[in-house]
Each structure stands twice: as C-alpha cells, then as structure tokens.
Design goal:
The chain has 202 residues and is α/β, with parallel strands linked by helices. Helix content is 42%, strand content 22%. Strands 1-2-3-4 form a four-stranded mixed sheet. A three-stranded mixed sheet has the order 5-6-7, with helices on one face. Strand 5 and strand 6 form a beta hairpin.
Length: 202
C-alpha cells in the first residue's frame, strides 16, 4: 500500500522482456498510478487502491462497495486502465478489478482502515527519509485481523551480508517509528524488507 491514493499499492514494476533503471521504474509507476486515479475519479468510481505488481505482471484495482456495484463498473474500469497502460512500459500487464475485502471481525469501516494504512505509510516514509535511506522504492501495508503487515521494497541489488544487516536495521527503524500506533491498535507487527529481486533481506 506513498502515495497518490489512500492504501495505494505501488509495487516495483518491470516489463517482462526488459529491465529498467530504478528512476525509470518509479517515474513510470507513479505516472500511471496518477493517470488511473484521475480518470477513475472523473467517473466517480469508489476506488480504494491501485496496484502495479511485478511478479505476476498485473495491474490491480480495488473497489469499495457491493459485488453488484463491482459488476456494474468492472468493464468500464478495465477499459480505462487498459487504454492508459498501452502508452506505458506496462502495456502487456493484465488487469484485475476486485471488491475491497474488510476482515470479518473488523469493527472498522473501509475508510477507517484506509486512513490507518495511509498513516502507517506516511510515518514510515518520513522516518526512513529522515534517517537517510535513499534505497526505499515503495512501502506496502496490509491490515489483517490480528496483525499489520509492512512490506518494504528497496533498490539493493542483491542479498549479501551487508544488505541483510541494512534490512534488519530498516526493520528496527520501522518498529521504533510505529510503536505508538501499534500500541493504540493492539496488533502484532510483521515487517518484510526486500532487495530489488524481491528476496527478503531482514
């Protein structure tokens, strides 16, 4: 889940047949996410998240509402996203439109959950930026019934002892920055830090 949209899922993206620099990836991901957000807002669609995913080469859009509402707008969303993606390095990515899922035992509304995740994202970003970490590509957050999951993608080139130590250090920094929030939410915290190849380094 950075950010152009509440609960946004900006994920490192690479075209299947060609690799791009971090700068190109981030610029293209951010630009496409902004374009999708703007176009869907013009249609007054109730969107909760926009995700561009590397491993399955897919663009995911999550919608707040009933299954009936999802079905009524699904094709329109797919068409808009497809047309926008054709002008980018993500033109061959598949597109999925899904209903936002709220944990069955959650007492929070979708809006409250999105606000919490956005707060987590902003807190982590600000803390790591202040600590001088320039390798952070993006941060994803997810709420489950009993825990909060944080996934941090970095530009570290490969997993080695140095990067593993840095990954653990980033984990410690994030835990310390979220202490107050975690105590308030009364949830366990899971933090995963990845290198550029999506290998865990903490």
């Amino acid at each position: 889940m950075y950010f152009h949209y509440p609960n946004n899922e900006i994920v490192l993206a690479i075209e299947s047949k060609k690799e791009y620099s971090n700068e190109v990836l981030i610029e293209n991901t951010n630009n496409l996410t902004k374009q999708i957000k703007n176009e869907l807002e013009k249609q007054n669609f109730d969107i909760t998240s926009i995700g561009i995913h590397l491993q399955n080469e897919k663009i995911n859009i999550r919608v707040n509402g009933t299954q009936q509402y999802l079905k009524s707008i699904e094709k329109n969303i797919e068409k808009i996203v497809y047309e926008l993606a054709q002008k980018t390095i993500f033109k061959d990515y598949s597109i999925g439109v899904y209903k936002e899922i709220v944990p069955a035992d959650s007492n929070k509304s979708t809006l409250e959950i999105n606000e919490l995740l956005n707060k987590l994202n902003m807190t982590i970003q600000e803390n790591l930026k202040n600590k001088g970490y320039k390798e952070i590509l993006n941060i994803l957050t997810e709420e489950q019934s009993k825990k909060l999951i944080i996934e941090i993608n970095t530009s570290f080139q490969k997993s080695n002892l140095t990067n593993t130590n840095l990954g653990k250090k980033i984990e410690t920094e994030v835990k310390e920055s979220l202490t107050e929030i975690i105590l308030t939410e009364n949830k366990m915290l899971e933090i995963n830090v990845y290198d550029i190849n999506q290998e865990k380094i903490n």
